[in-house]
Amino acid sequence: MQAKQAWGYIVESVKNDLGEEVSQILDSVVFLSLQGSLFTLAVPDQKTKDAFEEKCRREIVRRLQGYFGATLDVSIIIDPSITTEAFPKTNEPLIEIETVEDEQTLYEILVNPKRVVVIPDYFRYWIAHLGPDLAWVYVAFRQIAYLASGGKTQGDKTIRASASRLAQLCGVSDRALFKRFAKPETWKMLHGLVEKIGDNTERYSGSAGRYKVNLSLPLIPAHTAAVKQALELLASTPFDEFVDLVKQISLEDLEDRFSSENSAPPQSVRQIVEQVCTQFNRRDKEVVISVLQESLMPSSRVLIFSHFLMEQVMPAMGPGQTWLYILLRNRSWAISGEGEVTIPGGYTELAKWLGLSRPMTVYEWVNAKPGLLWAYVTPRSKEESKTSHGTGEWLSSARTFRVLHTDIPLELLRVPVDQLCAGEISSFGVLDGKDSSDDLRKVQRLLTQSSEVTYAKFIGYLRKVQTLSL
What we know:
Layout: H1 2-18, H2 20-26, E1 30-35, E2 38-43, H3 46-55, H4 57-68, E3 73-78, H5 106-111, E4 116-120, H6 123-130, H7 132-148, H8 163-170, H9 174-181, H10 184-189, E5 194-197, E6 210-213, H11 221-233, H12 239-247, H13 251-257, H14 269-276, H15 282-296, E7 302-306, H16 307-317, H17 319-335, E8 340-343, H18 346-353, H19 359-368, E9 377-379, H20 391-395, E10 399-403, H21 417-422, H22 438-447, H23 450-466
Parallel strand pairs: 2-3
Antiparallel strand pairs: 1-2, 4-7, 5-6, 8-10, 9-10
Helix pairs in contact: 1-2, 1-4, 6-7, 7-8, 11-13, 11-14, 12-15, 14-15, 16-17, 18-19
């Protein structure tokens, strides 16, 4: 009975993870017996057996072994008498639900905020390791793979996608992207995230090549080495105590205890535990993997940003400034839930977030070089000149920023469409010029910069195309 219950549990979990196609296959598979290490299943025909072997076997065997903590084999027999409904419907009463939803707001029509990119918050360490440009390359690869696979990320699979679409999500031209791909340093930095298959380093000529994208985010090299060292030090610890100690591992603790100069090829938590914790059986390893994964990459902590931000704002604002905005916005949500955040290490800390060696670059983005970022991030108080203090100390002082929580300044929606499309944006139509609101001044700065005129025109274009009633 235990084996049959285990089969039912595993089937339901695989269905939830792998989608409708796999669900239909598993509906035609029936559990027969578990004798020793042989798990026997039955299917009605050869077609179902072939489909199971291709689409399901690997994941089913992995989960069965994880559940029972032992090596198992799965045998499939064909029995034409089996019905195609392995889990008959019950006579439970059904309910009928009618949904009601208001019409979309103008902002929802323009931005489509439900269409988002979700990536573990741990990726902030990869941003610092890779730098802003290559961080966008990985996100673009990841998102292309996710969308091309219909949102099904479990298991290994091969997909085909548009190279031009990849370049668009990276905010560059096709030629610029593949020029970057021709550099060995690119793949050295992306090792563990994206791998180029084969030696296709020739000048881009329409053959986009083959790439392997890791959707399971590994640890950066320094963290990989530190976690390995920490687990090796606990090798002789009894299992229960080992798990309790693993629960206490944090990235801050690892960085304090182990030298940041040590590094190892990037590996996932699962790969590290499989390699280091050889003293444990399969079930115990799965426990360690789950505990350590949640300690280092809590599933509840994620970076979220819209496709609109990635596809429309990032190419205009640039990779570095867009990541700065995303990270500041995420921090403001996590700490205050409001559009204001204080960074204790000031511009020096922000530069480290982005893997930049020059903190003044971030200062100039926010204060000295008017651009699209000014519509999204502004200092709460007027910045003092760096000449009045020692540069290093001044740049490392705590700074508070106001961060826009919407993907476009809502004041843009108040500008008449004709003014936006024609670029006649010296005034705001509904404003008399006397309003001293910080938000409105911020938008005015935005709309008076040449690069932002194009952005404003784009908003106007969307309003005309997508909303006939305006």
